[in-house]
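#onboarding

Welcome to the new folks! Below is a worked example of what a typical request in this channel looks like: someone posts a single protein sequence, and someone else replies with the predicted structure as tokens. Don't worry about understanding the tokens yet, we'll cover that in week two.

Example request:
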Amino acid sequence: MARQDYLFTSESVSEGHPDKICDRISDAVVDAYLAGDPHSRVAVETMCTTNRIILAGEVRGPESITPQHIDEIARACVRDIGYEQDGFHWQHADVQVFVHKQSTDIAQGVDAAGNKDEGAGDQGIMFGYACRETPQLMPAPIHYAHQILQALAEARHSGAQPHLGPDSKSQVTLRYENGKPVAATSVVVSTQHAASVSTDEVREIVRPYVLEVLPEGWMCPEEEFYVNPTGRFVIGGPDGDAGLTGRKIIVDTYGGAAPHGGGAFSGKDPTKVDRSAAYACRYLAKNVVAAGLAERCTIQVSYAIGISKPLSLYVDLHDTGVVDEMRLETVLTEIMDLSPRGIREHLKLSRPIYARTASYGHFGRSPDPEGGFSWERTDLVDALKSALT
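Example response:
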């Protein structure tokens, strides 16, 4: 039996964290290609450091998207995040673009041809997870870690807190009793700030946003509330630490509360199952929990490069289910086509919807009118109930 009483911690990082800047730029490039041609193929990585941004990767799509266009996309992302600092400025940074055509060897394995359906863009394993700890069916520690940083970012962008900088991190430790989260035992927030603001002042700026996010009565003891524990955080962003696409995969998913297959999401078009199949697994797991079939659900799928059908599907209800897991595995494959094409079409993923996923998590968000976060819908609930209850 799983432990019922324990502490669990998750962290988040803001849109201005160096790695998240890179995720944002890479996903904005994906969006640009899909906006020009929904059949585009994109795998683009970004690296940033002091006033320098480097993009590299392979693409197949509209010729109208030139290196100059990609340069403009990168600068627009940095400007939107809010970097106008001496060490990292959207206007003054040196942007280098090393993007080339997709390998024909990969293309022939992935593309549909004759009787061959579209294959997976790579081998790999992907996971999805859902639980009843929050209304969004997400683990509570990562949910609140994201929410704290989102609240601070909104205050910064609105002008309500002009002394805050774009780069920030959070960490939330929750106490679980009888398997349910009941309170925070510690909260850590590190946020970039103006040189004119003291550490004590930053602490008081941050405090109300943490109190607003955590449920009433959940705030940690004062001695376990850590704000900028190094004492100063003026130099931040890529000027303080280099960033890379795809380094925050646990922040992107479940905060360590569930397995991760290892593949990053950002910078990849939806034929890459690292991204699309992870979205599909979250979608299925969330619908299983929303249907009342389990309190917790983990789903794994696996693929081989160039092969359309998944090699395996595994469901774990963590001893909380009211249905047989083997039967559920069969039903899930009946109500959703888990081939790369089937996932992409079911969730309508061939749209420019990815830049918005690059910070504050790919999961636990609300589906939007333009089709973003379609994997957060719970529109399979009735079909699951009909098949299994």
